[in-house]
Amino acid sequence: MQHGFLLAFLIDVAYPNKMISKNEKRAFMASPCGTSSGTSRRLNTQSEEDLMNRRKQRRMLSNRESARRSRMRKQKHLGDLTAEASRLREENCRMMTALALAERHCAAAEAENAVLRAQVAELDLTLQALNNILRRCAFAGCGADEECMGQWSSMNADAAAAAARAASADVLGYVFNQRREEDGQGKV
After folding, report:
1. N or C terminus of the chain with fewer C-beta within 10 Å?
2. Residue 147 CB: number of other CB atoms within 10 A?
3. What is each CA distance from 54 to 43, 60, 61, 133, 175, in whole angstroms?
């Protein structure tokens, strides 16, 4: 009994202001000699530290693995973006080539349209000249004689020459403007 009293006194001195609970005090006093409890407490503290160290090591390993996976995801994403950028550049190049080809075809079609417009103008003038000759012939009452045919030939040649000059001026002006636009100088 004296031993228990002494032990309680020592506990009160070691843990002033009731820093130890009554249950802990009872458990401490119940151990034989009192010293084994201190030893077991040190062992418990050391095993707790070992447990905490192991948990800390596991957390560190887990964090490293997570960081490694994150780096790999970022690297894969960067690779995917690089491949997509390369594919888009190639597609852009193909589209630019197709656009240039379409512009050349458009320019050729516009030049051909200008020639066809000139030919229409020439044929329109020829038709007008023929209608005039037919009216004169019908008015004069002549048939297909030399005088009527001579008038038709001279009028047809004059009309054809005028239409050809207009058509060539149209085409040359168009081609000249196209080349200036391609050079970035604009139309004249």
Report:
1. N
2. 11
3. 16, 10, 10, 116, 84
How is residue 104 written in tokens?
A: 């050349």
Contact 118, 170 (CB under 8 A): yes
Burial state string for 23-59 with b = 16 or more CB within 10 A and e = fewer than 16: eebeebbeeeebeebeeeeeeeeeeeeeeeeeeeeee
The highest-confidence range among 46-55, 66-75, 123-132, by mean pLDDT, is 66-75
Question: In which element (H, E) is residue 20 found?
Answer: none
pLDDT tens column, 87-102: 999 999 999 999 999 9
**Cα–Cα distance between 51 and 71 in angstroms, integer?**
30
First CA to last CA across the chain, in angstroms? Answer: 124
